[in-house]
Amino acid sequence: MAHPAQLGLQNATSPIMEELIAFHDHTLMIIFLISSLVLYIISMMLTTKLTHTSTMNAQEIEIIWTILPAIILIMIALPSLRILYMTDEFNKPYLTLKAIGHQWYWSYEYSDYVDLAFDSYIMPTYFLEPGEFRLLEVDNRTTLPMEADIRMLISSQDVLHSWAVPSLGVKADAIPGRLNQAMLASMRPGLFYGQCSEICGSNHSFMPIVLEFIYFQDFEVWASYLYIV
Length: 229
What we know:
Pfam families: COX2 (PF00116), COX2_TM (PF02790). This protein is of the alpha+beta class.
């Protein structure tokens, strides 16, 4: 999860987020090179009075500074389109989880199981255990199996919300009367935190999301236990 004074993105736990971080670094390097070149040219123009007469009206220079930006844009666009199509790719998900936004909590429904649903509210500060995070912990964590493709169906019952977990590279709007779809997967077990990312009212800041990824066999035990309870 994020920590104070963090400059970069959160550590990736899904293949999509790893691709997004790589694309971020790729684009940032291009921006850095362009900025350095422009700064160098500006500094040279301000510190020298010499003028090269052959570049005052040269077609070759104009061709270069027209084609070069187009090439740079292609270098940025192709990886971006590749990741965009990867985020919309759904290959036989193992599990379907439906998240419904309310003012101001989330409801979750496991569509592949009968009557497996619960509400997830923010944990009050005076109920927190040592090591739990204020404003990020919930009373009912969403438990999911790791190393499995999970399809998220996201909607809302009242106003606009947004279901976002940065370390998984997932962010989808929750719109009343409409189902949005997203795919997520975690390559390691652990707790991953998110929040509502759409201003939805006075308690918008108090809609945390906690996903707990566990091993597949442990997930089956957890689901069976809920049936017994």
